[in-house]
């Protein structure tokens, strides 16, 4: 990851991208109601600013992995939106040949490794991608996103500890929208806000904070593992 200049053109590009992603998902929601998209459909609406900013910090060869709100991430990394829509509609022309559906987008050639429905399941996988970079001497970073609910998972605690111990080049980004399904963070966390909890597991945080549409994005810029806790609100 690199430190990049943020100009007016950058803000406009972010706004354009976020608007496109929102419209894309609005369309997906309409198709879902018509039952043309089957199964689950978890939208990313309201959280787009996190992606716009953090994808901008990525460089060639960096990787990204997330949970099930995963329709727009591959687009941010250059995937054709038509392939995402095809996947949502179960078509063979989709990114997972129509077999994954809403929660399982994959575009490994673009550095996007899913798309995971098991809460917290992507966290050790993200550390694994980072381990591969370290092992093969590549100077890349893996962005690993998770919801606030995933912080309750043992997989997160084990992975955070190993990442810290082995100094893996992974950035854990906690997208704290205040709820895990219907359960509020206050009802499940001994420590709120969540960044106090993750701080204990953090090697290093270099922060660049940008405000877009009243949402705060915090980007990590150093190739060493770090935790970022971002407050957001789903629309
Ligand atoms: C291991 C596991 N337990 C339970 C579930 C059911 N479940 C689906 S979404 C969810 C809440 C996750 O909340 P959070 O991580 O905050 O993500 P958000 O939906 O807010 O983005 C739960 C418990 C699951 N998918 N996986
Ligand atoms: Mg949540």
Keywords:
235 residues, alpha/beta, Rossmann fold, four-stranded parallel sheet, two-stranded antiparallel sheet, 16% strand, binds thiamine diphosphate, binds magnesium ion
Radius of gyration in whole Å, from Cα? 17 Å
- CATH topology, by name, is Rossmann fold
In the sheet with the most strands, the strands line up as 1-2-3-8
Distance between the termini: 29 Å
- The overall strand count is 8
Content-based structural category? alpha/beta
The major beta sheet can be summarized as:
4 strands, parallel
Strand content: 15-25%
CATH architecture field: 3-Layer(aba) Sandwich
CATH class: Alpha Beta
Which whole number gives the mean pLDDT? 85
Bound molecule kinds, no repeats: thiamine diphosphate, magnesium ion
Number of domains: 1
Spans of at least 5 consecutive residues whose pLDDT stays below 50 are: 202-224
Helix content: 25-40%
Q: For the record, what is the CATH homologous superfamily label? A: Thiamin diphosphate (ThDP)-binding fold, Pyr/PP domains
| Total DSSP helices | 8
**Shape label:** globular
**What series of H and E elements makes up the topology?**
HHEHHHEHEEEHHEEE
Structure description:
This protein is of the alpha/beta class and 235 residues long. It has a single domain (8-231), classed as Thiamin diphosphate (ThDP)-binding fold, Pyr/PP domains (Rossmann fold). The chain is 36% helix and 16% strand. It has 8 helices and 8 strands, in the order ααβαααβαβββααβββ. It has a 4-stranded parallel β-sheet with strand order 1-2-3-8. The chain has a two-stranded antiparallel sheet with strand order 4-5. A two-stranded antiparallel ribbon has the order 6-7. Helix 6 links the parallel strand 2 (142-147) and strand 3 (170-176). The longest helix is centred in the first third of the chain and has 26 residues, at 8-33. The radius of gyration is 17 Å and the shape is globular. Bound molecules: thiamine diphosphate and magnesium ion. Thiamine diphosphate binds next to strand 4. The site of thiamine diphosphate (TPP) has 12 residues, from strand 4.
């Amino acid at each position: 990851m690199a430190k990049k200049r943020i100009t007016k053109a950058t803000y406009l590009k972010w706004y354009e991208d976020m608007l496109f992603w929102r419209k894309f998902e609005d369309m997906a929601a309409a198709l879902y109601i018509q039952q043309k998209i089957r199964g689950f459909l978890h939208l990313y609406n309201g959280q787009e600013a996190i992606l716009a900013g953090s994808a901008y910090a990525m460089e060639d060869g960096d990787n990204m992995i997330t949970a099930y709100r995963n329709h727009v991430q591959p687009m941010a990394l250059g995937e054709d939106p038509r392939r995402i829509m095809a996947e949502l509609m179960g078509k063979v022309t989709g990114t997972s040949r129509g077999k994954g559906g809403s929660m399982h987008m994959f575009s490994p050639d673009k550095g996007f490794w899913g798309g995971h429905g098991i809460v917290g399941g992507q966290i050790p996988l993200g550390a694994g991608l980072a381990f591969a970079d370290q092992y093969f001497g590549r100077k890349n970073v893996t962005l690993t996103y998770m919801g606030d609910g995933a912080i309750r998972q043992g997989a997160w605690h084990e992975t955070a500890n190993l990442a810290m111990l082995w100094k893996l080049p992974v950035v854990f980004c906690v997208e704290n929208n205040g709820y895990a399904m219907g359960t509020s963070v206050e009802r499940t966390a001994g420590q709120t806000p969540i960044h106090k909890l993750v701080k204990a597991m953090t090697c290093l945080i270099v922060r660049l904070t940008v405000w877009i549409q009243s949402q705060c994005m915090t980007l990590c810029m150093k190739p060493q593992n770090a935790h970022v806790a971002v407050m957001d609100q789903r629309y």
